[in-house]
Amino acid sequence: MKEIAIAWYTKEEWGKVKECAADPEVFDDAWEDWLRKAQQTERKILRKRALVVRVPVTAAALQAWCWKEGLQNSGGNRAAYALHRMERMQQG
After folding, report:
1. Structure confidence by residue, pLDDT tens digits, 32-71
2. Model confidence, pTM
3. Domain-by-domain residue ranges, the chain?
């Protein structure tokens, strides 16, 4: 079964990630709005017979990874980070 990584934020970390994002305008106005949309996305993925992997993301770890890779904290790079973390989690 295909696995899809989704960056998963606590309320506090979501705010921190938004504060240091290169694209803060793409973020919802409130964490609760983000959570609702993330849960909707999970349901869509599950209907397509794929497994959702919630990848806990902290702003500090994301920023460190972006800096190391020479990347900005942007939507595509946040998704790439979630995939990277999922692969690391699966390796043990």
Report:
1. 999 999 999 999 999 999 999 999 999 999 999 999 999 9
2. 0.90
3. 3-91
